[in-house]
Amino acid sequence: MALPPWAVDAIRRGIVDVARKAGDQETLSKLKQQATEIFRDLPDTAARSVEAIVRTAKTGTQTLQRWADRQPEIAVPLINASGRLLDNKLGSGCPIPDAVLQVGCDLLRGDCKRGGLRERIDHRLDQLVSGHGIAVAGNLDLAIEMVSQLSPEWGLAIHRSQAIRLPSGTPLPDAFGASAIREVGGVQRIEPDDFNGLSQTIVVLADAGEVEFTLPTSMSDTVRFAVVLPVGTLTDEQDGVPSAAGLLAGGVDLVILSGDGLAGGPSCGLLVGRTDWIERLTSHPQWRGHAASDAVAAMMLSALEHRAVDVTPESDVSTVRQLIAVNEDNLRSRAERMSTRLSGADSIHSCQITDHPAWLIESGRWQFPSRQLRVRHTSRSATQWASDLAQGDPAISVGVDGDEIVVDLRWVPASADGSLAERLES
Question: Which family would the database say this protein is a member of (predicted)?
Fold first, then answer.
């Protein structure tokens, strides 16, 4: 049964009043002062919980203000309820942390010191991976293409079973441009004999995420490995997710990975590996057209430095890691509340809760417990409804299964539940 009009009007007035007070600096100051007094009498764990609530409220207010100030035709916010984080065509829906974004904004404003800026950024990047170097390219494809500049000293080869399609849609062998790259082995799996006869060669491998990735063994001393990670991190942060640090420790000489997604930065490509290789690539004339801008490189540095700090889920600035840390009980409670709300809407024919896992990428090996709402509209087909949601403001990305849309909550921040439910009811 739907709520009566007077109740809806009262709730709406209450929300407007809360939003007005949340943006008032005097109210925020009083709230902080009262919270400080409470902290003295609370155990440490409870104090951290209250601090997290205050920070979440402030972040929600900033998000509302940002949405209000944006250009709606260009910057349409996205709520990712598809159940897939990194290979969703509409986007991940996970914003870059404000602390990271601010660095780029400061540089783009044009009133900052420019002399020696890139040298300072590169020096601090290199400190993040002891004994190795890091370079930031404009995107993953450009980072991969730069590897070809290690020739003629090194030849390039790729195993046919590793010829994946990159997130951009480019087949991995094509990402090396016009450079000659030798293809070896079969399309099913890697065999030790596949690399016989190779000498002074960089063998390119890739972890597509479908099966557990392992490095070939018993290679010649003149064969080196470069690994492409469409999904990965700089350091070992998430169980089962490959990291550049882990691969380098295992004998890989060069790792190429995306700077966004799990790495926590803006869209760019990272080259991490042997210092002499990184220096050679960044000193090549072609690097000028492949390097990321100073602002993007600075944001990537800020993101990696934040992630290098030992943080708790409550103090983590990374939206992705915050969403991964959400426990299953939290998702179940949110699904139950939203189901109750939607079941009372006249436009909703049915709403059921399911507990299938969510994914980093579709068909990948990285799964996370989740909750979904399988919702059927009274008059619209699921396909048309999903299309309408994707075209709205905010845009909603959902799955389609038969006559129902599938709304997965794993990659939806709790602060977006209200907007999500409102769009589904409309």
Answer: Belongs to the SelA family.
